[in-house]
Amino acid sequence: MSSTRTRSICFECHSRCGVILEVNDGRLTTVKGDPDHPHSHGYTCPKGRAAAEMIYHPDRITTPLVKVGGKGGARFDATSWDNALDIIAERLLDSREKWGAESVVFGTGTTRGMAPYLNRFLTLFGSPNFMAPSNMSGGPIVLGSAATCGFGLVDPDFANSTCILLWAHNPEASWPGLYLHDLKEGLKAGAKLIVVDPRGTPLAKKADHWLKIRPGTDVALLLCFINVIIQNNLYDHEFVENWTTGFDKLKEHVSSYTPKRCAEITWLSADDIESAAIAFAGSSPASIGPGMGGVCQANDAFDLTRGLTILSAITGNLEARGGNLNCVPPTKKRSCYGPDYSAYLNLPREQAGKMLGLERFPLFGHIPIPCPPQVVWPAIETGTPYPVKAVGLFANNSVCAYPNSARVRTVLSKLDFLFAVDYYHTPTTELADVILPPAHWTERDEIEDLLMRNHVFAQVKALDPVPVCRDEKQIICDLARKMGLEGYWGSVRETLDYRLEPLGMTFEELKQIGHSAAPLTYRGYEKYGKFRTPSGKVELCAEYLAMLGIPALPEFREPDEGPASSPELFKEYPLILTTGGRNIVYYHSSHRNIASLKKRSPDPELQIHPQTARSLGVKDGEWVYLSSPRGRVEIRARYFSDINPGVVHAPHGYWYGVKDGWQRLNINMITNDEPLCPVTGSVPIKALLCRIEKFAKD
Asked: What are the Cα distances from residue 256, in Å, to 68, 259, 280, 312?
């Protein structure tokens, strides 16, 4: 029996933990944590350990498939790679000929690192439309913080902090491999912990200050924090004077957000708000960990992430050891979302200006992020601002992943052509004309640098792909060749070596050392004499945004559905619904068919306060209907004391194993995709209204 051990990087979620893969006779047998990985330190989660189940699952798609019977067909027949790619090439070229290159959109979900390769393809093809759920995860953080200080607030230095503020962030369930080790190190060294979360997560219940906020009122709380810090003279005077602009206007703007007023808005106590704000400002250094989904799924996500950046700035924690760092990947402009690939930045200006969403969200033209799905749907539905006719989806179960699932399914059904690249059949692949089977992450080489702080890692192929699956990069290389896109890479190795050119090494060389790190820079603004903003300083009051129709200061807006903004609707739907808290067992809507994982979390469970449940006659574990103005889904009620009695939480991503599960179990059947955050396009799925209905008795 032949055996190998390969050190690699897991990609069952974006934490990308270090792993050691054991292969016997060509089959993956064991996944173990790599104790030498600088972020995960030997940690692995159930998803990563279940990799062999995923690779050898009987339902895995292992050959290209073509739909039989046209759009209404339900059957797929196996075909060759040549034929499948010929069909895709012909349909994409035909769409470009008839409607323009912008009529073609490529979209990703978890991406598996595909952004550089898809963006390069789209640039050569001529389309500015790369779609990703960035508006729901990470994009608003980048937009809000970069507009304020010139970089994204995504790299908290937890290990060296004396105070850690987790804002709508539960790293134990969402990013354990990336953040949890350093968080534990900081707490072990005596750091205070502040958690802002409507739910009592394990970390919230351990915190020195847990603020059980009413969903959707975060900006009011932030403005109050800033006001308390200023009024108590706890801000960093030297930093504010030398490195910020607009402090006096900020001070005046936040002055009305007193603890008393904020308590009424947020359902918190004034004393708790004030003591938490003073604790944060009274600790130095202090770091802020914003939740990728938690702060990015609101009608005011831009102002929320701006406010977090301002909080870090006035307390002197930007780019400070133990604060929030400005980490640059060693790959620089060729990092995962680097400008060297961006279709928007590399197309001719006239064509780039056609990027969907640019007119509605003009800040995208200055801080580019992918097109939000919600601006693609109208182009498919009504041809506004122009028709989108063909879409390619990579690891993207749009029907379940995005709000207002009924609309998403209807929209995708209207396309002239849809192809999907995925491991298994999903409610989205059902709508595809062609399905392509990708290699698993253990079956391919890749470079990982997205949100990897100052590191770049080699994800090393440990075994050959299950026949006849292909590395997604190879799929795109083959498709580009068939379509005659001159200038695209000819092989997987070329794509990887190109990304590593800024390091002066090849992928083979990176494989030998596993990872490479750029030096960390603290207080880089002192070295360069400025921040990367229009004023060269932190924009506490960003006057330049007025040219784009954006308020210069963060503003609190009530959620569009809620007791204050829609009192009549609140009478009919008297509970506040927050959605999408992460489950360590799954990654969004994926992994639902993996037996060992499904056993751990078989059903969607509604977290509801026992007092509220009993008042409705609902027993612990009972199946109920959860309704919103958009419809209803089936969900199992689960008593949960660590939540406000007026709030319930529902998980996302459930659909597998039940007939029409995408309609019956999928929480996005009752979420909304409007109104979007007016700056970032974020969706308002963290604060909606709902009610509980009993199952009708036979």
From this structure: 63, 9, 20, 21
Nearby residues of 227 by Cβ (< 8 Å), 6 or more positions away: 254, 255, 257, 258
CATH superfamily of 3-55: ADC-like domains (2.20.25.90)
Question: What is the rounded distance in angstroms from the CA atom of residue 165 to the CA atom of residue 277?
Answer: 10
CB 298 within 8 A of CB 686: yes
Q: Which fold has domain 567-694?
A: Barwin-like endoglucanases (2.40.40)
Position 698 pLDDT exceeds 70: no
Determine how β-strand 623-628 pairs with β-strand 647-650: unpaired
Distance CA 167, CA 319 (A): 19
| Cα 110 from Cα 265, distance rounded (Å) | 35
pLDDT digits (tens, 9 = 90+) for 464-517: 999 999 999 999 999 999 999 999 999 999 999 999 999 999 999 999 999 999
Question: 3-state class of 422 per DSSP?
Answer: coil
CA distance 498 to 89: 25
Alpha-carbon gap, residue 625 to 236, rounded angstroms: 51
C-alpha–C-alpha distance, residues 411 and 248, integer Å: 48
Instruction: In whole angstroms, give the CA distance from residue 387 to residue 126.
Output: 15
Spell out the residues 6+ positions from residue 471 whose beta carbon is closer than 8 angstroms to its own: 438, 439, 443, 444, 445, 465, 492
| Contact between 122 and 259 (Cβ < 8 Å) | no
Strand partners, 418: 391
Q: Please provide the DSSP assignment of 361-407 as one string.
A: -GGGGTS--PBPHHHHHHHHHT-SSS---EEEEES--HHHHSSSHHH
- 260: tokens are 């008393």
* C-alpha separations of 487 from 242, 481, 484 in Å: 47, 10, 9
Question: In angstroms, how far apart are the furthest CA atoms of the chain?
Answer: 73
Whether the domain at 3-55 and the domain at 153-325 fall into the same CATH topology? no
Closest CA to 62 of 423, 578, 540: 423
Report d(CA 384, CA 362) in Å as an integer: 17
Amino acid at 516: S
Domain borders along the chain are 3-55, 65-136+339-436, 153-325, 567-694
**111: confidence class by pLDDT, cuts 50, 70, 90:** low
Amino acid at 445: D
Q: Could you give the 3-state DSSP secondary structure of residue 119?
A: helix
Average pLDDT value for residue range 74-94: 97
CA 490 to the chain's CA centroid: 31
For domain 65-136+339-436, give the CATH number: 3.40.50.740
Quick one: pLDDT at residue 74?
Answer: 79
Fold held by 153-325: Dimethylsulfoxide Reductase; domain 2 (3.40.228)
Q: Is the pLDDT score of 131 beyond 50? A: yes
Reading the block at residue 644, the tokens are: 């406000």
> In this structure, how many other beta carbons lie within 10 angstroms of the beta carbon of residue 69?
10
Got the DSSP string for 252-303? HHHTT--HHHHHHHHTS-HHHHHHHHHHHHTSSSEEEEE-TTTTSSSTTHHH
Task: Identify which of 41, 39, 31 has the alpha carbon closest to the alpha carbon of residue 8.
Answer: 31
Q: Is 443 helix (H, G, I), strand (E, B) or coil?
A: helix
DSSP state of 430: G
Q: What separation in angstroms does the CA of 183 have from each of 157, 203, 211, 408?
A: 9, 10, 19, 38
Residue ranges of alpha helices (H) inside 180-246 are 181-188, 202-206, 218-231, 237-243
Q: How confident is the model over 163-212, as pLDDT tens digits?
A: 999 999 999 999 999 999 999 999 999 999 999 999 999 999 999 999 99
Residue 125: how many CA atoms within 13 Å on its side-chain side?
32
